[in-house]
Design a protein that fits this description.
About 80% of the residues lie in helices and about 0% in strands. By secondary structure, it is an all-alpha fold.
């Protein structure tokens, strides 16, 4: 029965059926096929999945991301990043990574990060001679930092399903997120020595303290956003859920008062877009909850633990196996669907093997994001490919080295648990 349900979900997704309908079909058909269950359970488990105080953070962070994108701060962040690192070799490429890291601390969404930064940087990179495929692949991969550095909507979803502290997950993502950015910049540095990329060896201008000070005066309110959100959680002023509401208010003030890009007439459109996005994500979470309950009823979680146990009793090897399965599935199936289905399994495995829940959470989130840039699904690649106006095959040709850089950070998180768990345990106990 379990294998039939997985085959049904995978088959419907490969046929192009929307993820929400594919997961819902699995849960509905599965409950209907089990003699001891009744169909109303499907609706009951859907609503039970959404009956969570933790998930209240989701619409707030989605709305905050929309307000911040509309406020024009992405342009200010890119300008600041160019002043900061633009004088280096491949300065535009380095600036795009730095801008993605800073924007990640504001938006909470990898898609928002990749689309906002690429719309500004890619045209400039192409004018400077950068290969369109290289630019699109880099910014798509850098966009994954948006779900690793706090705040993160993916962490909100995972934390709600796995019953793990979202504040702890936020704090656990700080070091891995910074490392992903640094590893991507190191990869760019290696590219500058390749003979086929002479454009990366061109240096534009030089570093000027005066220019940095002028740029900082324009961008400091945007840079203050992550400090307020993370600092508020660290100090206990507000919870991670309340941080979403604070982020919305702060983004609204920035967009209307400081940058003056958001007008009163723009608010209905921003609210409607956020409502649509919230509905889509909440729908997927709801049907995943019903399908996840069915899998638990069919003892899939216990079977998965036994399967892992048959390979190794070492927690590190277990994490490597979990990561490998997540990444492979993420190349063929929507990465959010993989995360939602396997989150309960991951928590069961972490309890059995004594794996720190924040380390397991970061491994799951990072695998989810690697899946978001892994062809052929790769939603982030499709976003940047469209903006770069190039072919998917050209972007696909460049993305592998950047994926390798992010995978190396994932391995560090697996082999060094403190990278994901030290900060949350230090501040939250």
């Amino acid at each position: 029965m379990i294998w039939f349900l997985f085959a049904l979900m995978l088959g419907t997704m490969l046929l192009g059926v929307p993820i929400l309908l594919a997961i819902a079909l699995v849960g509905y058909v599965g409950i209907a096929a089990v003699p001891d269950l009744v169909l109303p359970l499907f609706a009951q488990k859907m609503f039970a999945q959404l009956d969570s105080f933790t998930l209240l953070a989701l619409p707030y962070f989605i709305l905050a991301g929309g307000l911040m994108s509309a406020s024009g701060m992405s342009q200010q962040l890119v300008d600041f990043s160019r002043v900061l690192v633009g004088h280096l070799r491949a300065g535009l490429a380095h600036a795009s990574v730095v801008a993605s890291m800073v924007f990640a601390g504001i938006s909470g969404s990898s898609t928002a990060d990749a689309s906002a930064i690429s719309a500004i940087v890619i045209p400039t990179m192409k004018k400077s001679g950068y290969k369109a495929g290289f630019a699109a692949a880099l910014i798509a991969t850098a966009g994954t930092i948006g779900a690793i550095i706090p705040p993160s909507m993916v962490m909100v979803v995972y934390g709600a399903i796995a019953q793990v502290s979202i504040g702890g997950l936020f704090l656990g993502g700080i070091l891995p997120g910074i490392l992903v950015g640094l590893f991507l910049m190191a990869t760019i540095k290696i590219y500058t020595y390749h003979p086929d990329y002479p454009e990366l060896r061109v240096v534009h201008g030089r570093f000027e303290w005066g220019a940095l000070a002028r740029s900082f005066r324009a961008v400091w309110p945007a840079l203050l956003g992550p400090v307020i959100i993370v600092g508020g959680i660290l100090s206990g002023i507000f919870t991670a859920t309340e941080a979403g509401a604070v982020a919305c208010l702060y983004a609204l003030i920035l967009g209307t008062v400081f940058y003056r890009k958001i007008k009163l007439r723009d608010l209905p459109g921003i609210l409607i877009e956020a409502a649509v996005m919230t509905t889509m994500v909440s729908g997927v979470i709801a049907v995943a909850g019903a399908s996840g309950w069915l899998l638990a009823y069919l003892e899939f979680n216990e079977g998965a633990v036994k399967f892992v146990t048959s390979f190794s009793q070492n927690p590190t090897m277990v994490l490597l196996l979990v990561a490998a399965v997540m990444i492979v599935l993420g190349t063929f199936v929507d990465s959010l669907a993989v995360l939602l289905v396997f989150a309960p399994v991951a928590i069961q495995i972490s309890k059995v093997y004594g794996i720190d829940p924040f380390q397991m959470g970061l491994v799951m989130v990072m695998c989810n994001q690697i899946g978001a840039v892994s062809p052929p699904t790769a939603p982030l690649l499709f976003v940047t490919t469209s903006i770069a106006q190039t072919s998917f095959s050209e972007v696909n040709r460049h993305v592998w080295w950047f994926m390798l850089a992010e995978t190396l950070v994932l391995l560090l998180v697996i082999f060094i648990p403190g990278l994901a768990s030290w900060i949350p345990h230090y501040f939250l106990g």
